[in-house]
Structures are given as structure tokens and as C-alpha cells.
Amino acid sequence: MTKEELKKKIGQRIVELRTKKGWSQSDLARACNKDRQAVEKLENGKVNPTLYSLLEVSEALEVSLPSLVKF
Fold first, then answer.
1. Terminus-to-terminus CA distance in the chain, angstroms?
2. Alpha-carbon distance values, 56 to 1, 21, 27, 50 (Å)
3. How many whole angstroms separate alpha carbon 32 and alpha carbon 41?
4. Is there a contact between 70 and 37 (Cβ–Cβ < 8 Å)?
5. How buried is 12 (Cβ within 10 angstroms: 0-12 exposed, 13-18 middle, 19+ buried)?
6. Distance between CA atoms of 7 and 18, rounded to whole angstroms?
7. Which pTM value belongs to this model?
8. What is the pLDDT of residues 7-50, one digit of tens each?
9. Cα radius of gyration (the chain)
10. 42 neighbors 57 (Cβ within 8 angstroms)
11. What pLDDT is stored for residue 20 in this prediction?
């Protein structure tokens, strides 16, 4: 798997979990103290997130970090 593929898969997983909660990108951004544009870039695979950033998102979505990156 390439780096680009991995970023896209993580982004897709975040979208899946976020929509399952009925949240908008703005809702997720507020929950993990980020701006909406940062969430959008993360979901679209435009950024290489840090481990800490993924932890913040997983906590906001109330899932474990391994569950967040499970695909």
C-alpha cells in the first residue's frame, strides 16, 4: 500500500465513522478542537496526519485508535 492509498483509506474511515454518528465535518472539528478545513483535508487524504491527530479524532468519534485505522 502506498502512502497516498493509506491516507485515502484513513480519510474514508473517518467519513464512515463521522456519518454514522450523524455529524458534519464542523461537528467533528469542534469535538477534536480543529477547524473544518483541517477535517476536510484529513478526510480527503490531503494531509499526512500525526499519530496524536489520529488519537484526537478517534477520541472525538468515541472509537479506539486501532478501530479508526481498521480497514
1. 12
2. 24, 16, 14, 10
3. 14
4. no
5. middle
6. 16
7. 0.93
8. 999 999 999 999 999 999 999 999 999 999 999 999 999 999 99
9. 11
10. yes
11. 97
Report the alpha-carbon distance of residue 9 to residue 65 in Å, rounded.
Answer: 14
Could you please report the per-residue DSSP string of 31-62? HTT--HHHHHHHHTT-S---HHHHHHHHHHTT
What is the residue extent of each domain of the chain? 3-61
Query: All 3 cell numbers of residue 60?
Result: 472525538
* Dist CA 15 CA 55 (whole Å): 15
Q: How many CB atoms within 10 Å of residue 67?
A: 12
The CATH superfamily assigned to 3-61 is: lambda repressor-like DNA-binding domains (1.10.260.40)
* Nearest by Cα to 49 from 5, 17, 11, 2: 11
